[in-house]
Structure formats: structure tokens, C-alpha cells
Design goal:
The complex is a heterodimer of chains A (about 250) and B (about 190). Chain A folds into three domains: about 55 residues, no CATH class; about 80 residues; about 100 residues. Chain A contains five helices and eight strands. Chain A is rod-shaped and about 130 Å long. Chain A has a four-stranded antiparallel β-sheet, covered by helices on one side. A four-stranded antiparallel β-sheet of chain A has the order 5-4-7-8, with no helix packed on it. Chain A has about 250 residues and is of the alpha+beta class. Chain B is globular and about 45 Å long. In chain B, helix 2 packs across helix 4, helix 7 crosses helix 9 and helix 8 packs across helix 9. By secondary structure, chain B is mainly alpha-helical. Chain B folds into two domains: about 100 residues, RNA polymerase sigma factor, region 2, helix turn helix motif (Rna Polymerase Sigma Factor, Chain: A); about 90 residues, Arc Repressor Mutant, subunit A (Orthogonal Bundle), CATH 1.10.10. Classes of the chains: A alpha+beta (about 250), B mainly alpha (about 190). The interface between A and B is large, with 38 and 53 residues.
Chain lengths: ~250, ~190
């Protein structure tokens, strides 16, 4: 027997463990010793046998009826336990239903909120468009009815003879519009694009796709001494005008 | 108790079969009742303790680990701890003094009339009282060795040695009784 085991056995740890008087840490230490050293395990087994023998020396006959009382208590405990498990099961079902319902409502709420945001955005876009269009119509009305408005007839050059447009420019209100009446037939890979040179900067006004609505007025940015251009550009438009393809220009200054 | 029966009881316990409690009562009831009575020193209280202990045994059945303790050790721990708790809750321990009258130990009175127990108890006097006092203080009174040393006014080293020698002597006595029964059985 090594000194380590002797030292361990000399402490009262094993006896304390036998009687369940050890701390958790002490119990772990004792269990480790029992598992590792057969000598300790043997002593522990002897202690257990001795305890049983000593306890048996003090045995007392149990009173009549005590066994039945105990069995009834255990039965009652069993019933309570099974009741408890039933309650737990019921509570789990309720919790599950509640969780499912909550998830359903949360999901629905989320969808409705998203839908609401989409509808609000659409409404805002429509409102903005309407305001823009109303403002446009108002400006068109001002331009077309104002006596100071000048009307320019725009015709295409040799490259686009069929191009006909009318520009309306009001220097007082600083508004300008163009009404394209006719456009030449262009190859499929080409289009007409409008530009305006304002204060030395070339601004893209947009592509003239079709002229289904011959009465439609396109707003032009206004600037002192501004010049409008119409160019032939590759399909889809260009970032800057191709100077050699200018087919018409509108000068605001006159 | 045979190991086979012990295994059977453990299996029944872990299968939540109430028959386990009946078997435990039949085989350990008297011993555990004696343990409870030794701690609380009141038969009515000891009955309550035994009832509570068996309910605890039933509830804790799945925590029993045969690799850590023999079945009796586990039952003893539960019963003893329940008895100590009961004693503390009824506040009867305060003025109790450790008076281990040897005659009280083997005076059977009405508390034990089973012949097989009488045979064992008759032999208890063979264990010197100085060992009995220490063993009872440690096993039944819920004292640590230090507490027993203070209560009994015996040095700690003597407590330790009396515990070891007492257990060794007890083993001899118990072994002799077992041999006696074995010889009777053979005859």
C-alpha cells in the first residue's frame, strides 16, 4: 500500500463519504480514489458491509399497518406524478398552440406591415407623379397662354428632313417646352435624343421614343442663352451628344 | 440479502414498479426503522421518518447508482438524513445529550421481538461500549468525527481509532453470527 493510499485512508473522508457527509469536491476525490485504487475500494466495501451489520444490530420490528401506509403514500405519489406529467403535457400543448398562433399572427402582422409600406410607397409615388404632372400642366398652361411666350418651329436638317417640332419658350417665367410633331424613320439601332446646353453644360433631356401623343409637351431646362439639340444616337441613347449627328437645334435667345 | 434479490429490487425500482417498495420494506424495513428510531428516539416520529424515507426512495429511484454505493448504503443515507432533518425540524435535539447507555442498546423491550434480530442483538454486548458509543454517534447521531470528539470529550485521534477498531470488531462479531447461522443451516 503506497503512502498516498495510507494517507488517504487515515483521513476520515471515506467514512464521511459513506454517511453522505462529504462536500461535492470531497465526494469527487473519494470516488476517484475508489475507482483508481482497489485497496480503497475494498476498504469502502468493508465499511458498507460493517454499516449494514451495525444497522441490523439495531433493527426494530415495524408496527402493523405501517407497510400499507407507505404503499398507499407511494401510490398517491405515483398518481400525483402522473397527474403532474399530464399537466406538463397539457401545458406543453397549450404552449405549442400559443407559440404557433403567435407565430401565425406575427407573420401575418409582418406581411400586413410590408404590404402597408408598399401601398404607402405606391401612394407616395402616385402623389408625387400627380404633383409633378399637375405642376407640368400648370406650367404648360402658363407657357401656352402667356403673351410673352415665343413659339419656334423646329425642322430637321438633311439627315432628318421629316423631323418637325414646335418649341415654346417664355423668358419671363423661365420655362421652355417642346412638342415633337413628327420624327423621321430611323434604322432600328438608332434613336433621336434631346439635349440642352445650359450655362456651358450639356444636359441629357431624354430619348424621343415615339410620337403617339402629338400634343405632348416635353419640358426643357431653361437657361439664358441656352441651346437645345436633337441628335441621332445609337439605340438606348448616349451619355454625350454626337456633334456630327445633330439634326436640329433650338436657340432660346431670340 | 442476496445480490440477486438486490439487483431485482433495483430493476423494479428503476422500472417504476411499486412492488420494489414492498420488497424493500420486507427486507430492509426493520433495519431502517431501527436507524430512524436511533436518530429521533421516538417511535411515532420514527414511523413518520420511515414513511417519508420510502417516498423519497421512490422519488429518487432513478438517481441510485450501484457503482457508487450498495443498495443498503443508499437506503441508509436517505433514512438517516430524513431522520436528522425531522429531528432538527421538531427541535428536539437541543437539550439532548449523548448518553449511550449500553443497556439501552441491547435492551430489547417491546421494540424488537424477531428471533433472528434477538440473536444478533444478544451478541451486541460483545462489542465494547467505548466502540458502540463512537459508532452510534457517527452513524446515527449525524455527527462528524470532530463533533463527536467535542460532544463525547474524546480526542479526535481516539475517535478515529475507535471507529476503525469498532468496525473491525463488529465485523468479527457479525462474521461469527453469520457462520453460526450457516452451520445451523448445514445441520
Amino acid at each position: 500500500m503506497t503512502d498516498k493510499i495510507k494517507q488517504f485512508l487515515e483521513t476520515d473522508l471515506l467514512e464521511k463519504y459513506l454517511l453522505d457527509n462529504t462536500t461535492q469536491e470531497e465526494s469527487l476525490r473519494v470516488e476517484r480514489y475508489i475507482a483508481i485504487y482497489p485497496e480503497v475500494s475494498t476498504v469502502y466495501d468493508e465499511l458498507q458491509d460493517n454499516l449494514e451489520a451495525f444497522a441490523k444490530l439495531h433493527a426494530m420490528e415495524t408496527p402493523d399497518g405501517l407497510k400499507n401506509k407507505i404503499l398507499n403514500k407511494v401510490k398517491a405519489e405515483n398518481k400525483e406524478q402522473s397527474k403532474f406529467y399530464k399537466y406538463i403535457a397539457a401545458a406543453c400543448c397549450v404552449a405549442f398552440l400559443f407559440a404557433t398562433a403567435s407565430f401565425f399572427f406575427w407573420n401575418q402582422n409582418k406581411s400586413l406591415k410590408e404590404e402597408n409600406t408598399i401601398v404607402n410607397n405606391k401612394m407616395k409615388t402616385i402623389e408625387d407623379n400627380m404633383k409633378q404632372q399637375l405642376e407640368d400642366v400648370r406650367n404648360q398652361f402658363i407657357v401656352l397662354n402667356n403673351p410673352r411666350t415665343k413659339k419656334y418651329s423646329v425642322k430637321g436638317n438633311l439627315k432628318a428632313k421629316e423631323l418637325k417640332a414646335v418649341a415654346y419658350i417664355n423668358p419671363v417665367k423661365k420655362l421652355s417646352y417642346i412638342n415633337v410633331r413628327n420624327i423621321p424613320n430611323l434604322p432600328e439601332n438608332q434613336c433621336l435624343q434631346m439635349w440642352a446646353e445650359v450655362d456651358g453644360k450639356m444636359i441629357n433631356i431624354g430619348i424621343i421614343n415615339d410620337i403617339n401623343d402629338k400634343n405632348k409637351l416635353m419640358a426643357l431646362p431653361y437657361g439664358e442663352n441656352a441651346v437645345g439639340y436633337i441628335t441621332i444616337e445609337p439605340k438606348g441613347g448616349n451619355k454625350s451628344p454626337t456633334i456630327e449627328n445633330i439634326v436640329a437645334n433650338i436657340s432660346y435667345c431670340n | 440479502m442476496s445480490t440477486l434479490l438486490e439487483k431485482h429490487i433495483v430493476e423494479l425500482l428503476q422500472d417504476r414498479n411499486e412492488k420494489a417498495i414492498s420488497l424493500l420494506y420486507d427486507h430492509y424495513g426493520d433495519t431502517l426503522f431501527g436507524v430512524a428510531n436511533k436518530v429521533v428516539r421516538d417511535e411515532d416520529l420514527a414511523q413518520d421518518v420511515l414513511q417519508e424515507s420510502f417516498v423519497k426512495i421512490w422519488k429518487k429511484a432513478d438517481t441510485y447508482d450501484s457503482s457508487k454505493a450498495k443498495l443498503f448504503t443508499w437506503l441508509f443515507r436517505i433514512t438517516r438524513n430524513t431522520a436528522i432533518d425531522k429531528l432538527r425540524s421538531t427541535n428536539t435535539k437541543t437539550d439532548r445529550e449523548i448518553q449511550m447507555d449500553v443497556s439501552d442498546v441491547y435492551n430489547l423491550g417491546t421494540e424488537s421481538t424477531k428471533p433472528e434480530l434477538m440473536d444478533v442483538k444478544d451478541n451486541l454486548h460483545k462489542l465494547e461500549s467505548k466502540y458502540q458509543i463512537v459508532l452510534e454517534a457517527l452513524f446515527f447521531e449525524g455527527m462528524t468525527q470532530q463533533e463527536a470528539s467535542e460532544e463525547l470529550n474524546i480526542p479526535l485521534g481516539t475517535i478515529k481509532s475507535r471507529l476503525k477498531i469498532g468496525l473491525r470488531e463488529l465485523k468479527k462479531i457479525y462474521g461469527a453470527i453469520a457462520m453460526f447461522f450457516f452451520l445451523i443451516f448445514l445441520i
